[in-house]
């Protein structure tokens, strides 16, 4: 399940639009395009936020687990809730607004590189 949360976050980083990310989850659940109206999307978002914010006691946890034991379900409401929680927490905005992302720095060359090394791997000559 954690890999799906990670994939949802990666999709959100790629599209950078929460509406696109959540409607994509709704489509993954099998909702036909003709039902993707503004009202349905808003209701889904309310349900997802409510689901993510609930603290379940032990009986509710068992009910929740049993309700998701269908093998074909992708737990879309939970996934959307976790995605919305991530966006609402500000972590998404912090990540998007970072200007100094850590990137591997190339070590400075002490020696002069040959033309092949400067160019990198060459398909024609590397066989």
Main sheet specs: none
Tell the overall outline. elongated
N-to-C terminal Cα separation, in Å? Answer: 43 Å
Helix content: 55-70%
Question: Which structural class do the helices and strands define?
Answer: mainly alpha
> pLDDT below 50 for ≥5 consecutive residues: which ranges?
none
Question: Quick check: average pLDDT?
Answer: 77
Order of helices and strands: HHHHHHH
Got a strand count?
Answer: 0
Rounded Rg: 22 Å
Question: What would your notes on this structure say?
Answer:
By secondary structure, the chain is mostly helical. 60% of the residues lie in helices and 0% in strands. It is built from seven helices and no strands. The two termini are 43 Å apart. The mean pLDDT is 77.
Task: Give the helix/strand layout.
Elements: H1 2-15, H2 18-28, H3 38-53, H4 58-67, H5 76-88, H6 91-97, H7 115-119
């Amino acid at each position: 399940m954690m890999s799906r949360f990670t994939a949802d976050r990666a999709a959100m980083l790629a599209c950078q639009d929460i509406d696109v990310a959540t409607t994509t989850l709704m489509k993954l659940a099998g909702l036909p395009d003709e039902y993707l109206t503004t009202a349905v999307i808003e209701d889904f978002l309310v349900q997802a936020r409510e689901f993510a914010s609930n603290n379940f006691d032990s009986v509710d946890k068992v009910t929740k687990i049993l309700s998701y034991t269908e093998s074909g379900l992708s737990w879309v409401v939970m996934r959307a809730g976790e995605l919305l929680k991530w966006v609402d927490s500000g972590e998404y905005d912090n990540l998007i607004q970072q200007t100094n992302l850590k990137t591997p720095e190339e070590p400075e060359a002490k020696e002069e590189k040959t033309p092949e090394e400067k160019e990198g791997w060459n398909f024609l000559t590397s066989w």
